[in-house]
């Protein structure tokens, strides 16, 4: 599994991330009860520590880990998803993997079947053990939210509320998407936070096709009145340029209305000319 939005500057190591996920998965009853030992075999961190990969002993436990999406570590909500090059397991391999013990079995992924792709993720229940990771803890979580060492809440994300957004309009689709509600003013005050958000956004968008560029105008950036890139019109937006219009449409369909840190993402299309004008402004990239 790919894990994004890792906390920076807290001394996180691959071994600590492995320890964290082993504790979280077991405490949430997402592991294979028929197997002894730890569900996580290994963890790898990127050079800058912004994201990592978690290797599991079984397919079922890897699938089950997606129920922990948005779990908190070091004050950051982790984004847990399959790697970009993920390919579904061929049905013909099912029995062989089961015999080898690689398929696995959990309460939310019986015999490796992905039940978490439906509308309602499985509930995570059970007490959460304390886990000391040697990091500074964020502000205390609400009493109803279980924590791990003061760093982690493993309650599942709340069900998506009605977004109130207008339907996605693809009648004038282009190769460029403008995404609202992906960033906040607080995010833009932190260069590393914006770097993480843009990296994760690009990764998500690349699931639908090649991405040429991904950027967000810096606070106060903007063109003159009537330019189409006035500061008020482009503030707090992320812009993504694809190679093809089909990729942009597919990505817009996936992201429009999707919850991102409790906010409903809005996707709109803009012209390539406007995007090129945006690139002349001070931007996070």
Outline:
This protein is 24% helix and 19% strand. With 285 residues, it is of the alpha+beta class.
Based on CA atoms alone, the radius of gyration comes out at 20 Å
Shape by Cα distribution: elongated
The run of helices and strands is EHEEHEEEHEEEHHEHEHEEEHE
| Share in helix | 10-25%
- For the largest beta sheet, what order do the strands appear in spatially? 14-9-11-10-15
Q: Give the strand tally.
A: 15
Please work out how many helical segments DSSP would assign: 8
- Give the overall pLDDT as a whole number: 81
Q: How much β-strand is present in the residues?
A: 15-25%
For the termini, the CA-CA separation is 25 Å
Alpha-beta classification = alpha+beta
Keywords: mRNA processing, mRNA splicing, RNA-binding
Protein name: RRM domain-containing protein
InterPro entries: Nucleotide-bd_a/b_plait_sf, RBD_domain_sf, RRM_dom
Domain RRM: 1-85
Tag the structure with descriptive keywords.
285 residues, alpha+beta, Alpha-Beta Plaits, four-stranded antiparallel sheet, elongated, RRM domain-containing protein, RRM_dom, mRNA splicing, RBD_domain_sf, Nucleotide-bd_a/b_plait_sf
């Amino acid at each position: 599994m790919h894990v994004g939005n890792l906390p920076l500057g807290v001394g996180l190591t691959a071994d600590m991330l492995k320890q964290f996920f082993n504790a979280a998965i077991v405490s949430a009853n997402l592991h294979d009860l028929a197997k002894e030992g730890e569900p996580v075999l290994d963890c790898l961190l990127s050079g800058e520590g912004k994201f990592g990969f978690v290797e599991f002993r079984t397919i079922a436990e890897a699938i089950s880990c997606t129920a922990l999406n948005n779990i908190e570590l070091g004050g950051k909500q982790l984004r847990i998803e399959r790697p970009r090059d993920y390919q579904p397991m061929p049905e013909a391999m099912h029995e062989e993997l089961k015999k080898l013990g690689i398929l696995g079995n959990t309460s939310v992924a019986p015999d490796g079947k992905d039940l978490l792709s439906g509308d309602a993720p499985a509930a995570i229940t059970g007490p959460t053990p304390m886990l000391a990771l040697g990091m500074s803890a964020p502000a205390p979580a609400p009493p109803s939210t279980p924590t791990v060492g003061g760093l982690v809440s493993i309650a599942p994300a709340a069900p998506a509320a009605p977004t109130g957004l207008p339907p996605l309009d693809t009648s004038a689709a282009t190769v460029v998407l403008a995404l609202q509600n992906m960033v906040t003013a607080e995010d833009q005050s932190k260069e590393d936070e914006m770097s993480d958000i843009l990296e994760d956004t690009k990764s998500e968008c690349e699931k639908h096709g090649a991405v040429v560029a991904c950027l967000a105008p810096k606070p106060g950036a903007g063109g003159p009145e009537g330019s189409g890139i006035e500061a008020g019109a482009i503030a707090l937006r992320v812009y993504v340029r694809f190679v093809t219009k089909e990729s942009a449409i597919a990505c817009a369909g996936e992201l429009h209305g999707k919850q991102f840190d409790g906010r409903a993402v809005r996707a709109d299309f803009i012209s390539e000319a406007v995007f090129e004008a945006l690139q002349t402004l001070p931007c996070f990239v």
